Amino acid sequence: MSTEPPSMADLSTFALVAQQRGFRQAGRVSGQSASSLSQAVRRLETQLGIRLLERTTRSVAPTEAGALLLSRLQPALAQVASALDVLNELRDSPRGTLRLNVPVSAARHFLQPMLNRFMDLYPDIMLDIVVDNNFVDLVASGCDAGIRYGERLEQDMIALPIGPRSERFALAASPAYLARRGVPQHPRDLLRHACLRGKFLSGLVYPWEFERDGQRLTLDPAGPLIVTPTVADLAVQAAVAGHGLVYLFEDWLAPYLAAGQLQPVLPEWWVSFPGPFLYYAGRRHLPAPLRAFIDFIQQPASTA
C-alpha cells in the first residue's frame, strides 16, 4: 500500500466506472479510452492495497470494499462538483454537462425540437442523453435529471411538467390486414386477431388497455411479434406490412395514419393519460446546466 494519497482524478474515475458498470461504458460518458480508465483504477487499487472492482469479460462490479468506497465517494464528489459549479454564476452563460435519462417515446417525439432550441440558447452546455425506459436512480447513474410519467416518480423527487400534457395510446393496422381479417368492433375482438406486442426490458409484456364511457378493459392478446420499446419501429413496420395490429403512442403512429399506411382501430376506446415530467433530486444548489434547463422548460414556448 502506497503512502501517497490517491488523486481526485483517480477516485472520480473509479466512481464513474463503478456507476457505469464497465470501462467502455464509462469511456463513452467521459470521452476517455477504456485503457486509460483501467490504468487509473489499477493505480488506485495499488495505492490502497485492495481490489475495488471485480472484472469479467462482460461486466464490472464493485467488490465489498469498492461498494463501501463508492457509497462514501458519491456525496463528496457531488459536493466538489457543486462547489466548482458555483463559478458558472460568474459567467455570462452557464457551461458544463447536462446528463438526462429519458424514455424512448420522449427522445423520439417532443424532446428533439426542445433540445434544438436549448442548444441554440446555451451553446456552452453539452447535452448527454441516455435513452432508457427503466426508472433509474439518478445519483447512482450519474444523471442530473430524468423524464418519466407520473406513475413512475418517487415521492422524494421534484417533478416539473415537460412536453405534451396529455397523450394517448393508439391502435392501428394496415388496410390490407383489416380487409383480410376484418375490423375489430370491440376490444375483446382483439383476442382473435394477430397483435404485435411490446415488452419492458425486464421481460414483462405490457397489457393493452382500453376505456370508453367509464368502462375500462385490460387485455393480453397474442401475436407473432414482441419487441422492446427501443425497437418499437419493428412492430410498426410489421403492422404496415400487414402482419397484425400495433398498440403504441398516438404520436408515434401519427405519420403512418396520415399517410394511409395504417388505419385507426377502435379510436373511441383509446386511453388518454397525463404527459411526462422532468424529475430531479431536490437539493439547495443545482448544477448550472440543470438550473438553465429547468428555467428553459418553464417558459411557455419550450413546452409547445
UniProtKB/TrEMBL annotation:
Keywords: DNA-binding, Transcription, Transcription regulation. It comes from the Bacteria. The keyword DNA-binding applies. Residues 6-63 form the HTH lysR-type domain. It holds the Pfam family LysR_substrate. InterPro entries: LysR-type_TF_proteobact-type (IPR058163), LysR_HTH_N (IPR000847), LysR_subst-bd (IPR005119), WH-like_DNA-bd_sf (IPR036388), WH_DNA-bd_sf (IPR036390). Belongs to the LysR transcriptional regulatory family. This is LysR family transcriptional regulator. The lineage of its organism: Bacteria, Pseudomonadati, Pseudomonadota, Betaproteobacteria, Burkholderiales.
